[in-house]
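Our preliminary data section would be incomplete without showing what the modeling component actually yields. Below, a chain of 332 amino acids is followed by its predicted structure, encoded as tokens that our downstream tools consume directly.
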Amino acid sequence: MSENQFIYQIYDKIFKKILTLSTIAVINLINGLFGTNYPPDSTITYNWTEHITDKLRRCLADTILTINGIFSYHMEAQITEDEDIVFRVFDYGYAHAIKQINNFPPDSSSDSQTLYFPEAKIIYLFSKPQLPDQYCLNLDFGSQGSFSYNVTTFKLLDYTIEELNKKKMIILIPFVLLKFRDKFKKKRANEDILSLKRLIFDDIITSIDQNMNDKNITENDAYKLKRLTHRLYEHLFAHYPEMEELNEMTDEALVLDIDILEDKYERLFEEREAALAKSNALLNENKALIAEMDIEIAEKDNEIAEKDNEIAEKDNEIAMLKAQLAKLQALS
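Predicted structure:
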């Protein structure tokens, strides 16, 4: 596995786990991102898709959620800028609309059909000057006119913790750690380490606990968000030698005994999955070999059958010759 693929998997898993938290937590995210007002007991249908090109485009997870069986919302998280993002969002939206077409029967009084695209939002998990607030894709239908397909963006790191809490978008808070990613790659000054410490303990952990108390997330959500925050911290910062003291503090604050057990079982599960995949690959290879042998046996059987037919024809010829010889002998 390449380093890019490894990094992709880390962010992809965290983003997907966040989107599979409790219904109330995910509905709050939808309401905050799209300005909707769905009640916390709404139903959510997951429509998972992924797209990785041969160059490993930086799409983390392409996710379309359908609320109450009708309204669909498309979220795509990005860790780097991608010039093709609007084309991919449109492509996924079109594919989703085609899949859902049977859920919206055409008007019997009209010959027209409608494609219902999900409302889309690109979530930027990094900060960069002049990131667009909106992407526009112009669709030109010739003599029928043109249409502008617009996709707005959400720049996570431009928002303060207070703003995220106000929007009840607490489940994105583990990714706030990315504010320090680029800075720590260059140097780890003491004041920056102290700032990161304050972010973790005063902002992230406090916000998670407060949102749990306010019933914006469940107790289980709070536990999982702390665990995901720790995972991202480990990936981003724990390997730097200057972080040893903060590593111990975050371990004590964010890691429970149950986390250690869960990590152990997850590793065992992944090992078993890998072993199962290897066994399946060997099984498929054996099946292919057996299939080849069956073909060879069938070919041999056909050759034998042809030989048997040739022998039978020769036997018939010999029998006919014997009969003719017997007649000649009888006449003489």
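The first helix runs from residue 3 to 19. The chain has three domains: 1-158, 186-255, 258-332. Preliminary results of this kind motivate Aim 1 of the renewal.
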